[in-house]
Amino acid sequence: MSTLIATTDPSRYLCWITSRAAGTAALVLASAAVGAGLLVSGKLVKRGGPDRRSIHEILALSVIAAIAVHALALLGDTYLRPSLLDVTVPFVFSYKTLATSIGIVAGWGLIFLGLSYYLRRRIGQNRWKSIHRFTALMWVLGLVHAFTEGSDAGQLWFIALIGITAAPAAVMLVIRHAGIGRSSRGRVPRTVAVAQPGVTTP
């Protein structure tokens, strides 16, 4: 009986469960943040006002918090027993090295790109916008990490959850890069000069 209790005791897996939940939350929040960011900067809808930008900022900060919990909670896992370097430096951890490294790169990328918002004046607005575009790439890497290493990758509920939350951002990203709905501002309209009696056209 004592062996059964020890095996099913949830406290032994609390850190792993916490990391697992935080990782899923990070993906959902990142999908929402990418979608909100595309709405703010895109041409499909009118440019976002202060409220929409605030929502995007809150989501980005929430992603950073979820990533931190996802990584740090693993330090208490009694099965994998990773070190701080294992969860923060790519290609150090021996467990599913490539998938883990992709997740680490995606995590750091989302953290630094999210915090770069507060340094945009020093970086320069145009340079910051160019750098910030890599957020979508880090988001995609996060999805790759989840589906190649995540414990729930094969679960229908997980696939449905990530699909529903990631699909809108993915569609907007495709539309943006395909140039659909792009503004035609900046083009000089062609005019036809009509000759009138007594008027000399240049």
Description:
It is a single chain. This protein is mostly helical and 202 residues long. The chain has one domain (8-178). The chain contains nine helices and no strands. The protein has helices spanning 2-8, 14-41, 50-72, 84-88, 97-115, 120-123, 125-132, 134-149, 156-178. Helix 5 (97-115) packs antiparallel against helix 8. The radius of gyration is 24 Å and the shape is globular.
Average pLDDT works out at 83
Spans of at least 5 consecutive residues whose pLDDT stays below 50 are 1-7, 183-202
Structural class: mainly alpha
Proportion of helical residues: 55-70%
Gyration radius, in Å: 24 Å
Coarse shape:
globular
The helix/strand series, from N terminus to C terminus, equals: HHHHHHHHH
The total tally of domains equals 1
What is the count of DSSP helices, taking H or I runs of 4+ residues?
A: 9
* Total beta strand runs: 0
Distance between the termini: 100 Å
The proportion of strand residues reads under 5%
The biggest beta sheet is recorded as: none
What keywords describe this structure?
single chain; 202 residues; mainly alpha; 66% helix; disordered N terminus; disordered C terminus
